[in-house]
Amino acid sequence: MKQDYLVVHGAREHNLKNITVSIPKNRLVVFTGMSGSGKSSLAFDTIYAEGQRRYLESLSAYARQFLGGLHKPEVDSIAGLSPAISIDQKATSHNPRSTVGTVTEIYDYLRLLFARVGHPHCPNCGREISPQSAQTITDTIFDHMLQATRYPQPARFMLLSPVVKDRKGEFTSLFANLTQKGFQRVRIDHQVYDLNTDILLLKNNHHTIEVIIDRFSVTKKNLPDRSRLTHAVETGLDLAGGNLILTQVADADLQFPDKPKSMTDTLFSEHLACPDCNLSLPPLEPRNFSFNSPHGACPTCHGLGSLLRVNPEAVARLGLNSGMIRSLEYRYHTTTSDLMRRELERFMRKITCPACQGKRLTPSSLAVTVHHLNIAQVTDQSITAAFAWVTHLASNLTARELAIANLIIKELTTRFNFLNDVGLDYLTLSREAASLSGGEAQRIRLASQIGTGLTGVLYVLDEPTIGLHQRDNLKLIATLKHLRDLGNSVIVVEHDRATIGSADHILDFGPRAGQEGGQIVAQGTPAQIKANPKSLTGQYLSGKKKIVVKNDHHITMNDHILTITDCSQHNLKNITVDFPLGKLICVTGVSGSGKSTLIHTTLYYALLQHFGRMTHETPGQFSQLKGTEYITRVSLIDQSPIGRTPRSNPVTYTKAFDYIRHLLAQTKTARIQGFGPGRFSFNVKGGRCEACQGEGQIKITMQFLPDVYVACEVCQGRRYNQATLEVTYKGKTVADILNLTVAEAVNFFSSHTTLHHKLITLKLVGLGYIKLGQSAPTLSGGEAQRIKLAKELSIKSAGHTLYLLDEPTTGLHFEDLNQLLYVLKALVNQGNTIILIEHNLDIIKSADWIIDLGLEGGDRGGDIVTAGTPRHVAKIKQSYTGQFLKKLLH
């Protein structure tokens, strides 16, 4: 069969050097090479961007009106381009209502399942309830009356039709209408009135009105007429839309008094109602199980499952009176200022909603079960456990229920299978999407795409192995091959050895990063790449180049130790963990084994609490934190963005831009014009372009697609007005300087010690290729994390700082790892401690100490499998990390 190709001619986007390349279609193709060598520029910014642009051009004229400013990639032509879908590391929705269940659409199918075959129960007494027909209601009432004849005195009953429930009004027209229909009496707020008299109600008061349909005085000799009772029941149900009340009257009077001593009501309904609690429930619909709908959301937390409340400890630390709590909460809920709200959140903490206990739904929705579980209990389980529950449904539903639910079960099974295949079986469906790592979010979207069953599509992925243990990589690779075998082309930007080795075709970019990259130095099968002397990747794959491991540090119990005891948050099994200080420590384990829960949720927030830093997050459960006297500061360096708008960039985040603005303000032109450093800020009026307010870009809301940023037509993306751009430093304007790469800027500012130091740290962490003014939304999670690391490096350290990092190797080539290790070791040598959550074996083998969690993920994780030096861990047969380390070390 003839091989089809995707042919790119003259690609020049970013640092690409006029690349022309043929990429085989319907194959698994890996783009690899050093960070900044041009992989993403070709994969995402050229191939995918052009695919998206062509797709938009095929839409209606209404859609095309947005395309005038859309950037066309710098490329001569692309032939053989299929519809393209990008699955990158960008975090999913930050909306707290978005969960793993909603993102994967599994929750939508669960809502449908519970609405169609759910068993409703009374939320008060727990009794299972079901709709009743008019005949069933008649029979039940007749039996009730028959039982009352056991007593010598007559039993008196009224059949009431509830027409108004707790509403304001005078209801004069209702009374007139009822009189016209022949009704004689009504019960208003538990008092009987004659409709032939004037009934005056207070207009602004709430009233409950029930029409008396019929009255029965029952004895052994005077049983109710069956046909009369049936007619009364049907009339009452029809009048109240399916609801009816049977009232037993207790009074010494033989008649029916207007104000009897007591009335006992029993509610009947053609819908859902509990006769014991007189509680009527809404009919089961999918919206009743949605925490995004007022029909299903808990009224206290509005479906969020949590509430923000002022933290009394934070108020006390500021020396404020506890009486300020109410005032602060009132200001938080009434202010319209986002800035004020963010400021107040520093004094608040998130608590579980006391009404729904974090389940997000109304009591009536949580009282519906399928196979013994309510919908929140299903979503609180791991995907493995929830999948097992779905699997057992077929043998536990009735034949009628199975006929209804069969298609739903098939859809759920398919989606659960795909989540298992991408190594996410440890997640819970109720997990907030915002809490997912970039790798987890990407693999969820990958699983969702496989579920669509599309063919003939070009998929472009960015490091899907992020966050995966080596053990789980094979399952992910099988998933990528399955996507290919459906008839799709799969392009993966990747640095993982196993993924590169499993590719049908490899493109190796280089030879270095930034302006020294942008070329394809080698391409072919894995074997051909290994044999190519020009390929840096091939040299590492073949073993010609290696990351050298220095001898293990000898760690004794005389060293200072940080200990956290009895950690039991999420799946942690009451573990006590020792962290030797002044070392490079790797926390390892399969996905879902509890690494992030231990380091981020528990240790980090416990230390913040210890140092008195305010946050609305509460630490995970633990008993004691010992050894804190040996630490002066804690810093979390994660992969969250350094900013969410084009205003944020590497030099503003690291404060290097402050020095650049001062240098520009000291130039002769700036002094003549009276320009101070503020003139060169794009965040305030004066020097910036007011058309784009200094962003250099205009945001276009696409409605049916993600927002698109296009270059400002006034300043052409340069951010500043013409007067500001007339000021130059060494021949470069402020816009030119922001357009320099870090590597270029290091040379350009070599004579300025402080500024040079800040820039050199960015280069040291492998970011020499990024531009000084590169906007935050275009940075990957790994790049954002390394910018934060560079900022920490630029601060003069007095030692005794604890750094917490989550997968700092994200986006790094083998060659870049040596430089990262050098930086990390330099921090440790200054007397600091670094704790990494890491899966990269080259980093793990270079650690001073390893803490391996497991044995599995989810409920079967949360234990310490082993702790020790890399050579010690490699000897532990039960440790999955040890098994892979053993192969590498030997």
TrEMBL record:
InterPro entries given in the database record: ABC_transporter-like_ATP-bd, ABC_transporter-like_CS, ATP_grasp_subdomain_1, P-loop_NTPase, UvrA, UvrA_inter
Q: What is its main location?
A: cytoplasm
Q: Which GO terms describe its molecular function?
A: ATP binding; ATP hydrolysis activity; DNA binding; nuclease activity; zinc ion binding
Query: One GO CC term of this entry?
Result: cytoplasm
Location comes to:
Cytoplasm
In this chain the ABC transporter domain maps to: 555-886
Q: Which SUPFAM superfamilies match?
A: P-loop containing nucleoside triphosphate hydrolases
Entry keywords, A to Z: ATP-binding, Cytoplasm, DNA damage, DNA excision, DNA repair, DNA-binding, Excision nuclease, Metal-binding, Nucleotide-binding, Repeat, Zinc, Zinc-finger
Presence of keyword Cytoplasm: yes
Keyword Electron transport assigned to the entry: answer is no
Give the GO biological process terms: nucleotide-excision repair
Signal peptide, first to last residue: none
Q: Name one Pfam family in it.
A: UvrA_inter
- Family the entry assigns: Belongs to the ABC transporter superfamily. UvrA family.
Output the NCBIfam families linked to this UniProt entry: uvra
Write down what this protein is called.
UvrABC system protein A
Q: Specify the species.
A: Candidatus Chisholmbacteria bacterium RIFCSPHIGHO2_01_FULL_48_12
